[in-house]
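Today's session is about reading a structure prediction critically. Students often jump straight to the picture, but the first step is always the sequence itself: look for stretches that repeat, for charged clusters, for runs of hydrophobic residues. Only then move on to the predicted structure, which in these notes is written as discrete structure tokens rather than atom positions. Here is the chain we will use throughout the hour.
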Amino acid sequence: MNLGMRVRGGLLAALVLFAVPVAAPLAAMLVSSPAAAQTVATIEVQGNRRVEVETIRSYFKSGAGGRLDQGQIDDGLKALIETGLFQDVKINNIGGHLVVTVVENPVIGRVAFEGNKKVKDEQLTAEVQSKPRGTFSRPMVQSDAERIAEIYRHSGRYDVTVTPEVIEQPNNRVDLIFTVTEGQKTGIKSIEFVGNVFYSSYRLKDVIKTRESNLLSFLGGNDVYDPDRIESDRDLIRRFYLKHGFADVQVVAALTEYDPEKKGFLVTFKIEEGQQYRVASVNFQSGISTLDGNTLSGFSRVYVGSLYNAEALEKSVEEMQIEASRRGYAFAVVKPRGDRNFESHTVSITFAIDEGPRVYIERINIKGNTRTRDYVIRREFDISEGDAYNRALVDRAERRLKNLDFFKTVKITTEPGSSSDRVVLIVDLEEKSTGDFSVSGGYSTTDGPLAEVSISERNFLGRGLFAKASVTYGEYARGVSLSFVEPYLLDYRVAAGLDVFYRQQLANTYISYGTTTIGFSPRLGFALREDLSLQLRYSLYQQSITLPSSLDNCNNLSGNLFTPAYIQAKYGSLLNDPSGNFQSGFLPGCLADGESSLPVREELANGAEWVSSVGYSLNYNTLDNNKNPTDGLLLDFKQDFAGVGGDVSYLKSAIDAKYYTPLVADLVGLIHLQTGMLNQVGSDSIRMLDNFQMGPNLVRGFAPNGIGPRDLTFYPFTGSGDALGGTKYWGASAELQMPFWFLPKEVGLKGAVYADAGSLWDYQGPTSYATTGEVNGVVNGVACKCAMVYDDTNVIRTSVGVGLIWASPFGPLRFDYAIPITQGKYDVVQQFKFGGGTSF
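Below is the predicted structure for this chain, in token form.
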């Protein structure tokens, strides 16, 4: 019996082994046959409520004969799942038919945010993909939560957590709520540089935008960790070295590490400086037979003997390529080549000019400008659709768009066009806020406390216009001004501006009279080069003087006021001393209590006068940083001619030059030269108000209006000693600026030592006032010192001093203490000077 059972078991096993390979194909045929027999039209759909049956069927793509095989059914299943419209999708074979059963995702009723204080709901709503009345998708919700967290990380909050919550509602609807736990800002606790030898870490911190956290960091945002800004800093460091001769520099890495103990990031930049190179030679080679490369040498900004400068090299290539295009060589390409001599640390520059590929611009597509009009962007291009593609002009357009300061990011890329000789320019932009509302506050030893409220818009109506209105109110200075600028007048690269102003300067410690000025000034600006600009202007304004009554009580003079009998009766016999000068305390008539200067009272008697002038300014600027310069030249030359109508005529000229140069160990040298001249035009005499007035703006250590010609009539006894100003001046200053290495860089403090020299002289203006009978020192035929006596000695004023410069979060502040070495007899000294202010 056992033997029989073993035999039957063996036969059964054999049958099973034999049946498996036979049954498998049969089973496959049984399963697949119904499917293979199906067409798209015969698919039955169940469970759908919003999505149409035909829409679901459309995801199943049939093969030859309109039949579906198993692979096509699987592809349809995957496609339905990937739409994100369904929570679940099942495919069954029921009664020989394919049945697609779906469970639709709910519809989102509302999307809300809770716990977000630092980022507004509007900003988060614009960033998330989940929208009200849209389809709910869990993968999309998770993506939205990560996107919200990323927004917070870019603002420095790396402890942020975002929890999505789904609240079920009737009719297959849900409410989606993102709960945000913002956490604290994660700052930069330290910034280190490794491998830098030529430039100190202190100097390199000026180059980058990232800052270390400090007590005043809440007023800024650059101390917050931002990986994009760190990467941008790497490029800034590299470009800084390339600009200063280090052709081999590499910023190997920017390492960031979170320190749990310090609760912040540690940033380390690894640098390989290499050697500093100078330019040994500059050559020009042209591969275009009809174009002599040497004729483009005038557009090169690279010079033999100078430090290798990659920035100057780039600008040279740009200028030369543009000039070649102007001469008719639209496809000319300029490629610089540098041959290094590692022993002498020099580089030989060769500009190779060749014919480039004939490629044309098919289209310029602009993306991301939600507010700025297209034409505002397109006008920054010197090329348009159909023109020859010129990379130098494209780079210039990108730089111009960045300089507009309308956009967070600007990127211009190319895509293939409809043919091999066509390209499409893609201008990708991200808009940013361009409006400013500011309340400015400041204090200076000249003007006292001062406040300004202003509102401005750099991109008014999205048309690239600039508009500003401001109100100023202070102890001694008040005013209102309106400004408007159209940067492209009649579609030309000419900036047209208009200023309307009202200014009031009150009498103060340094000046006995007040002035009121009201007028307007239209102007035109031309960018001759990126570093050279020209401005033409016209000004029309009314100017008048005000005086306290105590300084202007001579209006009742009579014919006998200065007669000897009157003087004898009023002042007694001690009026005159043997030298003929008036005694202190015994002054005749209206001058007894101290009058303002005769030219001041003449302006008061003349009343309001109109000044109509035309002028121009030529500005040359190569500064590396306009706010905190360390290298470069700033040169300004201006002239104004008054006499185009109005009551005043003169020609006023002035030159101001500042040259900054970096010295050793983070020291910066500054040479400041200035000079000016005022010339009489025609028969009209020069008013006192038209003269130059100088003080610490020329030589520090002196009061405002403290140097130059001065009224000495009964000064310093009872006279005002008004500064009269002069028609000629010059000034020279040498300054050494140095950081305080023992303080953190982020404090923004540096010191300065300086020496100043200068002079103001040659007063031209009224010296008598006929209305009071005071003419040439004679009153009613009696010689006396009633007419104006003034000092106009051309003395060279010099001083030395120290200064404290603070680039504070409250704005630039400067404190100066200067000691005059040489001075005029009647100059007014002010050794301490302070000034500064900011917007917040």
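Discussion point for the tutorial: Residues 2-37 form the longest helix (36 residues).
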